[in-house]
Write a structure and sequence with these properties.
Length: about 150
């Protein structure tokens, strides 16, 4: 499926989502409540077959987080960036995709460790690098008085 065909398909099959065509890869932004169903469709639909999660990360925009998933179809050789926004900074959470793509397991743990975003339904969500209670160093509001580290 060529890029234009892919974006047309996404617009047709995910009408409540935002499709961005002017980025390096096509982007599909979905509501957090639609993430699990959308991700399953992206993986299981034979025309799409996004069977490989390349990367999962997050971005802190100060007023919200965005969780970003880079997907590839090894069958069709096309790429997609899937995004979902997490507006709750106090208790940020989104459903796990680790049941669909096992490679999400360590990526979700890393995002939890560095941003504090919880992945509902994750079987082993614990810190990967930092001790409990340390804080979340990739948040824009992170401050470490002990080690004199602040982010702006």
């Amino acid at each position: 499926m060529q890029r234009e065909e892919l974006t047309d398909f996404l617009k047709t099959h995910f009408p409540g989502s935002v499709v961005r065509e002017d980025a390096q890869y096509p982007e599909l932004t979905v509501a957090a409540g639609d993430l699990t169903q959308t991700a399953a469709e992206l993986k299981n639909n034979g025309d799409l077959a996004f069977d490989y999660l390349i990367c999962l990360t997050a971005v802190d925009y100060k007023d919200k987080f965005t969780v970003v998933y880079h997907l590839e179809s090894t069958l069709h050789r096309h790429l997609l960036v899937l995004k979902t926004e997490v507006p709750d900074r106090e208790n940020p959470s989104v459903d796990t995709v680790s049941r669909l793509w096992p490679t999400a397991d360590p990526h979700e743990r890393e995002v939890y460790d560095l941003f504090g975003i919880r992945f509902n339904g994750h079987g082993n969500l614990q810190r990967l690098f930092l001790e409990e209670g340390y804080g979340f160093p990739l948040r824009k509001d992170f401050s470490d008085e002990t080690r004199v580290l602040t982010l702006s």
